[in-house]
Each structure stands twice: as C-alpha cells, then as structure tokens.
Amino acid sequence: MSAEKAVVTRLPIYLDNSATTPVDPRVVEKMLPWLSNQFGNPASGSHAFGRDARAAVEAARGAVARLINAGAQDIVWTSGATESNNLALKGAVAACESRGRHLLSVQTEHSAVLDTLRDLEKRGYAVTLLAPQANGLLDPAAFEAALQADTTVVSVMLVNNEIGVIQDIAAIGSICRARGILLHVDAAQATGKVAIDVKTMPVDLMSLTAHKTYGPKGIGALYVRHGLPATLAPQMHGGGHERGMRSGTLPTHQIVGMGECFRLADEEMAVEVPRLRALRDKLHRGLAAIDCVRVNGDMQQRIANNLNISVMLPDCDQMIAMLTDVAVSSASACMGGGASHVLQALYGGEAAPNAIRITVGRFNTDEEIDFALDYLTRKIRECQARKTSPAAA
C-alpha cells in the first residue's frame, strides 16, 4: 500500500515502544482517583484514607506478582528498573561479600546494569563482561566457563532493549543455582511480551518497570525470591518501608497504575503478542527485501514487536536524522544519542553500523504499519540513489 492510500490521521507514527509506551487510557482511569480525593499515605493505618491507600497498594502488588507468577510478598516497590537494578546488584554484592567479589554480566546489558557494575568495580569488585554471539545471544557453555570460584552475583537481561533477543535464562539460571550464585535478571522489556514464571525459572532477583508495559513512568519493582540465602542490603534508608529494603513514601497513584497495566498485560498478551508479531513481520518482510538492509540480532529468539535493522550505506546516520513522519530510534533511549554498545558487541572488531530500532505497540494499526513501511522504503531508496548518482561520485 502506498503512503497516499494509507489512512493515517496523525503524524509522526510512534514506533519507538521500547523507549517507552503510551499510558493505556484504562490505566489512567484507575490512577486518577488516587491523584484527587483518595490521597492518603499508605503508611498511615490509623484512618480510612491511609487504609484505603494501603489496600490499593497491596492489590497492585498482587497484580504485578501474578504476571510473573510470584508471591505478592516477593515484590518490592521502586522508582523504576534503574533503581531496581541498583538495589539488586549493590544490595546483593554487599550481602554476599564474605563469599567473594567477582561479578559476571554481558556486554549488551542496559546501561543501568553496566554503569552499576562499573561503580562496583571502582569499589574493588572484579567484573567480567561476556561478549554475545553474533546473533546477540549468550552461549551457555561460554557463560559457565567464565564463572570463577568467587563469583557471587550474575546479571543477564531477559530481553535486550535494542535488538529484542530473548536470552536463555532457564539454562543460565540452572548453572547459577547449581553453584549457589545469585542471578539477577533485568526484565524491563519482557513484561507483557514473553511468559515469565519465577516459580519454574531459576531467578533470584528480577527488575520490573511500568512504562514499558503501557503504564506510568517513575514506578517499578524488584522481585526478591522468597528464601533468598542473603538479605539484600538496602540502598535507601529512612522509615524501613518495603520490609526494610527500600524506604520512602509509596506513590499510590503510580503503584495503582503499574498494577493495572500488569493486570491488563496478563489478561491480553495471548491475543496482543500475535497481533504485534504480524505487524512487525510485515515491516520485516518489506525492509529485509532491500539489498542494503541488514537485520541485527536473532529473529527467532526475539520478542514479537522488535525489529532492529542497519542500512549499510555511508550516510545512513543522516537519513535517520531526517525521518520526520515516523518516530523510531537509532539506539537505546538511555544512550543519549551515542553509539550503540549493543551493536559494537555484536559486530566485534568491525565498525558497528548505525541502526534503526522499530518497535510496534498496542495502539499501532495496520494502516500505520503500511504507511511506515512505504515511508521507510522510500527514504532508504533515496539514500541509495544519492550514493550511486554521478553527482555523489
């Protein structure tokens, strides 16, 4: 379908759902009362305002727990996945310090994990970052070989935020569990996209956030496995909230929003994921047919809504900057426009090409995808034509 025939009412079309998702109107509706007349502090148990807020917080805790098949008591509220990653890693290494000071992770982790590990390295911890295979996936045998006698904590993300590949957490977790090593998993990009069951998945700590799952920004959670052999050392003090692991007045409206968006994901992902895969696959078929387009990352072991491509032309970066009618990204939103460390890890010694990350979402329509495919194809063809024209030569 041509761009002229596609019925699109609003431009640019938003295709950057890995950076953040729009808040579902149903989530907004649930949050609003807790921003107005239901304003009590959940820690105030002596009156109805506080008790009602506490009940709402606990209902949301249960909804978050159900999406990953955890117990509600295992969910600790945070301000988002970045804080969850910090609490998990810094809290775990402090608790396990007597057993060892070696940490293991992957070069393609989110900056919230990598920067935390760099900080721990400055404090005297030894950190090993494994290179992924060319498809972005970690080789379990290479992972096991990199473990040391004093390895205490491992961090491997479930879904990569740039290329969308799904790591084999079951295999990695089994290796860690057999050695008594704590496994932390950043699952910010996974909720609502892949089934998560922490009762069967050997994971000790899991970071979660609302704004990647059609919920509000500024609220997240950390799953802390019941019976963890070491108690997490808190990184914030003042009041002993969240069983002493994370002090601070709980933002009821945001927590309610996270609970509702996770509840909706739990109910709707069986229908939503195949629909998003069909939209993504339409883009994939169309763009992969262009000879200068290269797909980054494994296409089978990958979430349904993610497509990451490189356009193998010298002025691709200029083309990306001039895309006005579709909202896509060239790297993680947390990279601040810098080069993608994920692609650098994938391409090894080669110069990593610029990438276009396209991530479809709940509110994208077939017509929008038709428009976007036509638009991106034309822009890439124009870029090709400039490269091969006599004037360019």
Written account of the structure:
Helix 1 packs antiparallel against helix 7. The chain has helices at residues 25-31, 48-68, 81-95, 111-122, 140-146, 169-179, 252-288, 316-321, 341-347, 366-388, and strands spanning 13-14, 75-78, 102-106, 126-130, 151-155, 182-186, 205-209, 220-224, 293-295, 306-311, 326-327, 355-359. It is an alpha/beta fold and 393 residues long. The radius of gyration is 22 Å and the shape is globular. The chain starts with 12 loop residues before the first strand and ends in a 5-residue tail after the last helix. The protein has two domains: 13-23 and 269-388, Aspartate Aminotransferase, domain 1; 25-264, Aspartate Aminotransferase, domain 2.
Short description:
The chain has 10 helices and 12 strands. The protein has helices at 25-31, 48-68, 81-95, 111-122, 140-146, 169-179, 252-288, 316-321, 341-347, 366-388; strands spanning 13-14, 75-78, 102-106, 126-130, 151-155, 182-186, 205-209, 220-224, 293-295, 306-311, 326-327, 355-359. A 7-stranded mixed β-sheet has the order 2-8-7-6-5-3-4, sandwiched between helices. It has a 3-stranded antiparallel β-sheet with strand order 9-10-12. The chain has a two-stranded parallel ribbon with strand order 1-11.
